[in-house]
Amino acid sequence: MNRSIVPLLCSFLLLSASSASAFNVTNILSQYADYSNFNDLLSKTGLASEINSRATITLLAVPNGAIGDLTSKPDNVVKRILTTHVVLDYYDPLKLKSMKDKTAKLTTMYQQSGKAQYDQGFLNVTAKDNTFVFGSAVKGAQLNSRLEKSVMNQPYNISILGISQPILTPGLDGILAPISAPPPQANSPKSSPPGESSEEEAESLAPSKDADSPSADSPPADAQSTSPSSAGKLKRYPVQPCDRQFTSSSLKQETCSNLVGTDS
């Protein structure tokens, strides 16, 4: 055999092996009518050709009934969202079940775009209620996309998993606000139970019993008005002696009686 043909044969064999291991995600999904809308979005955004260029991926596909308003968004937004549904590793149900601690952080195609921030390019997957749930790894994002079934798999090149709804990654359809911790709460004074404060205020405003009520040592009001010190201040009139000369005894008796009554 001519030695010049050997390199050509090697190249041909390598090319044949490469072609045999390649996959076409559009052709694969076209066999599943439930994912026709998802398949159309992959082709429309040009993401299908990027997926086909990969050697190993896991595609999280959304069925037609759960696609929602994804079809009405701009193509560039749809592409960003769909790239978070392409995991750069091979995962089938068996591998998910073998995850350590039943949870993992997955790297998506969006992470390689150079535009990801705050973990937008990663997904969290966790075992829950006899299945697995997926969600964005961005802080505060929900894990609410459930694994429904394994659509198809070709170990260890491509695995297509059907999920219940699109994965919502914060900020992909707009500006992602910086994530910061909530401000600390100020230490507010301890509030009194209802009614307690009003009772305390009423007690503070009310005059004390000691101030209003007379003490046991204080004399009664009547006694104070007739005390010796005040009695000394009363003007007294001297009793006129009844030794005057009267012309008649009856006049004398009447006059002296009036004087005595005035003094008593």
Automatic annotation (TrEMBL):
Taxonomic superkingdom: Eukaryota
Membrane topology note: Lipid-anchor; GPI-anchor
Domain (FAS1) ranges: 22-152
Regions of compositional bias (Polar residues) in chain numbering: 245-264
GO cellular component: plasma membrane; side of membrane
Span list, region Disordered: 174-264
Major localization listed first in the record, in broad terms: membrane
Alphabetical list of SUPFAM superfamilies matching this protein: FAS1 domain
UniProt entry keywords in alphabetical sequence: Cell membrane, Glycoprotein, GPI-anchor, Lipoprotein, Membrane, Proteoglycan, Signal
One Pfam family cited in the UniProt record for this chain: Fasciclin
InterPro entries: FAS1_dom_sf, FAS1_domain, Plant_FLA
Signal peptide (from-to): 1-22
PROSITE patterns: FAS1 (PS50213)
UniProt function note: May be a cell surface adhesion protein.
Protein name: FAS1 domain-containing protein
Organism expressing this protein natively: Anisodus tanguticus
